[in-house]
Design goal:
Elements: E1 4-10, E2 13-18, E3 38-47, E4 50-62, H1 65-71, E5 75-86, E6 93-102, E7 106-111, E8 117-122, E9 127-131, H2 140-143, E10 154-158, E11 162-168, E12 178-182, E13 186-191, E14 196-201, E15 206-216, E16 219-226, E17 242-244, H3 248-258, E18 295-300, E19 306-311, E20 317-321, E21 330-335, E22 338-344, E23 355-361, H4 364-370, E24 374-379, E25 385-390, E26 394-399, E27 402-409, E28 416-420, E29 423-427, E30 434-439, E31 443-448, E32 452-456
Parallel strand pairs: 10-17
Antiparallel strand pairs: 1-2, 3-4, 4-5, 5-6, 6-9, 7-8, 8-18, 10-11, 11-16, 12-13, 13-14, 15-16, 18-19, 20-21, 21-22, 22-23, 24-25, 25-26, 26-29, 27-28, 30-31, 31-32
């Protein structure tokens, strides 16, 4: 039994200090050099009698002159993917090593629980550069923008109640040329005697009588009203030809690149002053649009190919948290002022989205932005509360709205309020730096250099 010492008991607030002992099962110099690494993620999975541990280790290197010219960065982020194998879970050996490289740091990197894919959220794409079992095809040509792929066919964004989709149409198209047929769960949008823009089964139900179509130049915008509130991972089921983004400047850049595809001329608008459209990948970091490639993407670890990607646009990264022990960590992105939790999923079909919306923290994006001294952010597995801690001493808990016995009324608007979202503060006795934070459904663990606090969290308070 591990020793347990009670530090303080005060009402519902209980602190415990734990001392743990660990045993080393495997040690090896996996890499050729002795550079320090950070363990980013680790997953244990089994296949019949074989057992595997997938480890993601990260370090940063200074670019060589060749790398600096290729990646346009003085420093590169390296992800070492190391696979350990065993048949008895006692004796382990290195079975495979893989390496990925990116010109920007990442916010999130994880291996799915089958060890097949790596999921990364970063300001730029990561690519495989080596694999101890299979050769890696050089993707330099695609990185330099020489690929014939132009981009998505349309862009879209959403709120809890409304969908907005933007399409690029040929010159001289008028609103009378647009054809739209909608049902509660189907849509058919296109140009009369021309191209179909969006067709199929909608992800959710809409009000077929509440829609709007606007045409400005070559940009066609469709607005749909959701029947019930919620966030959609896609507009039409199985349609991955669009790119979700809330960044207006990014939308403009994408549609500028697509305009020449709807015309016989490279510059359909001679008044624009451009000789030809440009590729956003040609922009330098110091230009007006620095985060042109911020993406959440999934890469197959065996084929080294990109299977899925979605543009993060203006969706600011907030935090990551473990909601299900059988799945990779979820990510929380800022949508307007809210924080939306997205759960990466194991999918087989290319058209299936490998992430889905699972919860929302109302106004949490606004709340986190106000915490200038924050160090760690996380939430409970059931998403009943989110928590932010400062560098020293203070921890802030934000609970989901809950019903109240006696309704309140707003003094200014007169609107009746039936639910209240409580916010609570924990002041630790220790003045040491907080070095770790972990949340469960009923407990919050806070680690300092000297003490590990266990805070009981319950429905009546902290």
């Amino acid at each position: 039994m591990y020793p347990q010492v009670s530090i303080k008991v005060h009402g519902p607030l209980v602190f415990f200090f734990f001392l743990f002992f660990f045993q080393i099962l495997f040690s090896s110099d996996v890499l050729d050099d002795n550079k320090p690494l950070v363990l980013t993620d680790a997953v244990l999975h089994s296949d019949n009698e074989n057992h595997f541990v997938e480890c993601l280790c990260t370090h940063v290197i200074e670019s060589t002159p060749e790398q600096k010219e290729k990646h346009r960065s003085s420093f590169l982020t390296i992800i070492e993917w190391v696979t350990l194998t065993s048949v008895d879970k006692i004796s382990w050996a290195v079975g495979r090593t893989r390496q990925l490289i990116g010109r920007k740091p990442f916010d999130y990197a994880a291996v799915d629980h089958e060890g097949l894919h790596i999921i990364i959220a970063a300001e730029a794409l990561f690519n495989f550069v080596s694999d101890s079992l299979k050769p890696v095809i050089d993707t330099e040509e695609a990185e330099n923008g020489d690929s014939t792929e132009i981009g998505p066919e349309y862009t879209w964004n959403q709120t809890q109640t409304v969908i907005h989709a933007q399409f690029t149409v040929p010159p001289n198209v008028t609103k009378a040329d647009v054809s739209l047929a909608t049902g509660y769960d189907k849509i058919n949008l296109g140009l009369k005697n021309g191209k179909t823009l969006l067709e199929g089964q909608l992800f959710g139900r809409i009000d077929p009588n509440e829609w709007d179509v606007n045409l400005t130049g070559q940009r066609l915008e469709l607005t749909l009203n959701k029947e019930t509130e919620g966030m959609w991972p896609e507009i039409v089921v199985g349609n991955n030809k669009g790119e979700m983004t809330m960044d207006d400047e990014l939308v403009k850049q994408i549609h500028d690149r697509l305009e020449h595809l709807t015309s016989d001329q490279w510059n359909p608008d001679p008044q624009s002053g451009l000789d030809k459209p440009y590729n956003a990948q040609q922009l330098e970091e110091c230009d007006a649009f620095p985060e042109e490639s911020a993406v959440l993407h999934r890469i197959n670890g065996d084929t080294h190919k990109l299977t899925h990607q979605t543009n993060l646009g203006s969706h600011q990264w907030l935090f990551k948290a473990s909601l299900d022990c059988n799945k990779v960590q979820s990510i929380c992105l800022r949508h307007d002022v809210d924080g939306l939790m997205w759960q990466p999923e194991n999918v087989v079909k290319e058209k299936e989205l490998p992430w889905k919306h699972v919860s929302t923290f109302n106004a949490f994006g606004y709340v986190q932005a106000s915490k200038q001294q924050r160090k760690f952010t996380t939430c409970s597995p059931d998403c009943s509360y989110a928590v932010i801690c400062d560098c020293v001493r203070h921890v802030y808990i934000y609970r989901q709205p809950s019903a109240i016995s006696s309704p309140l009324r707003n003094r200014k608007t007169g609107q009746q309020v039936d639910t209240v979202a409580k916010q609570q503060v924990i002041a630790l006795e220790s003045v040491d730096n907080i070095i770790g934070l972990q949340a469960t459904n009923d407990r919050l663990f806070i680690a300092t250099k000297q003490v590990l606090y266990s805070v009981i969290v319950n429905s009546s308070g902290v």
